Amino acid sequence: MKLKDMMFMSLFAAIMGVLAIFPPIPVPFIPVPIVAQTLGIMLAGGILGAKRGGLSILLFVFLVAVGAPLLTGGRGGLGVLIGPTGGYILSYPIAAWLIGYLTEKSIRSLTYWKLVLITTLGGVIVINIIGVTYLSILSNLPWGPTAISALVFLPGDLLKALIASAVIIKLNRVYPLIDSKKRNTY
């Protein structure tokens, strides 16, 4: 792996930590807060691609696991990963990889709305399905009602998908990091 790749992966792991500065918004009926860090996942996958985006967020999750207080509210450690928010956090690298993979595959015909669909699939649907499933198993609650309670995340997550897609499109035009052989003009 090139030094440039490692620097970009470290940068996006750091961006995830910076997004923790925004305070979590607690939700009264679900033990998982609304956070800004899912924006970083969408950006990492869409800008770095599958491999580098997934690895950068995996690095972030590893740092959280060893105790770095990089999650909103200054949380970190293995306890966070086995708690109610664990499924959401553990899904972050998968979501970043999926967003990166789909972005790479459609880089030649990438439009804003196609990218909104990609970031929504990876950064909203995948994260929520894994997070809700984990929370449902951990809490010993039925999946359906747990999923319905997680709908509170949908408006904010869709807004983050719209913002991330605009940033990804602009950055890929001026400083493309995804393989230029796959690239065509927008």
From TrEMBL:
Protein origin, superkingdom: Bacteria
Membrane-topology descriptor: Multi-pass membrane protein
GO function terms (MF aspect): biotin transmembrane transporter activity
Transmembrane residue ranges: 30-48, 55-72, 78-103, 115-135, 147-169
Gene3D superfamilies: 1.10.1760.20
Chief location of this protein within or outside the cell: membrane
Family statement drawn from the similarity comment of this UniProt entry: Belongs to the BioY family.
One cellular-component annotation, GO: plasma membrane
UniProt keywords, alphabetically: Cell membrane, Membrane, Transmembrane, Transmembrane helix, Transport
Location in the cell: Cell membrane
Protein name per its UniProtKB record: Biotin transporter
InterPro entries linked: BioY
Origin species: Oceanobacillus sojae
